[in-house]
Amino acid sequence: MRHGYRTSQIILHWLIACLLPVQYLTGSSIERTHHAVHMGVQPSSADVLQHLVHNYVGMAVGGLMVLRLFLRIMQPPSGGASSTGTELLAKALHVCFYGAIIVQAALGFFASYLTFSVAPLHVIGSKMILTMVAIHFAAAAWHTLIKRDGTIDRMILPRNDQPATRIFK
After folding, report:
1. In whole angstroms, what is the distance from residue 160 CA to residue 169 CA?
2. How many beta carbons lie within 10 A of that of residue 99, not counting itself?
3. In whole angstroms, what is the distance from residue 118 CA to residue 111 CA?
4. Which tens digits make up the pLDDT trace of 106-162?
5. In angstroms, how far apart are the furthest CA atoms of the chain?
6. Which of 97, 110, 130, 155 has the fewest Cβ atoms within 10 angstroms?
7. What contacts 141, CB < 8 A, 6 or more positions away?
8. Distance of CA 73 to CAs 76, 130, 131, 167, Å?
C-alpha cells in the first residue's frame, strides 16, 4: 500500500515549492516599475520582465494550489488519524498554507488587474507565507535530523508502492 501522498500531489508540492522563491526574487521589481512610471521615467526592461514573471508565476502558483487542494480533498493522504499536539499543529499549518497561498494569488491578481489598493495586503501575505515556509522547513529538519521518523518520506516520490528510502537513517 502506498503511504502518504499520491505522486501527483508530491509533484505539485515540489513544483509550488520551486516556484515560490521566484515570487520572492521578482517581487521587488513591482515597486521599482510602479515608482518609475509615477516619476515619469521608463522602467528598466529587466524590472518589466521580472514584473511580468511575478504576475504570471503567481497566477500559476494560485492555480496549482487550487488543484492541489482539490486533489487533497478528493484523495486525502493515507495514514492514520492523528491527534497529538504536533500532528494537529502540522495539519493547521498545511490548512494555512492552502488558504494563504490561494488568497495571496487572488490578491496579487486583484492588485495587478483590478485595484492596486489591495497591494498592502499582498505584501503582508508574502511575509506570512515566508514565516510559514520557515516553520515548515524547521519541522522538516526536526523530523529528518532529530526524530528520524521518516515523515519526509511522504513528500519523496514513492517507488513501486513502497515508502521511499529514508534520506537519513
Report:
1. 20
2. 12
3. 6
4. 999 999 999 999 999 999 999 999 999 999 999 999 988 998 887 777 777 553 444
5. 62
6. 130
7. none
8. 6, 25, 25, 28
